[in-house]
User: What shape does this take?
Amino acid sequence: MPPEIRLDPPPQRPGAEEFPAVVEPPLTGIPPAAPPPGPAAPVAWEPAGHPSGAELLARTTPVLLADGRVRAALDGRRYVVLGASALSDDKDRSVPAILVLVHDYTGRRTLEITLADVQPPVVLGVTESSAQPGLSRAEAERAVELAGTHPEVVRRRTADSVPMVLLTSDVAEGDEHHGHRRAYVGFGPPDERLPRVRVIVDLGEERVLGGGGGDE
Assistant: This one.
């Protein structure tokens, strides 16, 4: 039979002494409470937000079309202006700048055009890359329009379906679609997470590549 284990109770510790209910001697020299605040007076102010992308494009478009470097890069090519944004937070610039992104469908490249944010704006430089920024609103609308002509979409698209548009990832070099700007377009009811029918649209060639699958 195992030995019985006994533990002594913990020692009793006296609690902290409570403060007396009455302060002795009484406190003196306390200022009276301030009166309640009255009605607040309106303060005039103006928002200090940055101009929108549409406003920046409206200012820079005439300059872009007149610049020789931009014209040489886009002459005879099919392209789309993706958008513009302010670069006023760049500490290395003495003058605020504007960045305009243009995608060249023909050359399968994106042009980054930097302009000095003066009046009127001045083109500072044009660089190109193979990166593909997000779809512009015009591209998304065009992708939905093209996808709506596909026979599978016509057959299975319902009256309550809504479109979902995403830029697809690029494929490996050597693939026939490498470098193409393609959009994934799906259609389905708004209360369902996955689309019921989906297709891939080549925005550069303005054609539907085929169905991307869907639940039968």
Q: What stands out?
A: The mean pLDDT is 87. The beta strands are 79-86, 97-104, 109-116, 122-129, 162-167, 182-188, 197-202, 207-213. Residues 58 and 84 are 10 Å apart (CA to CA).
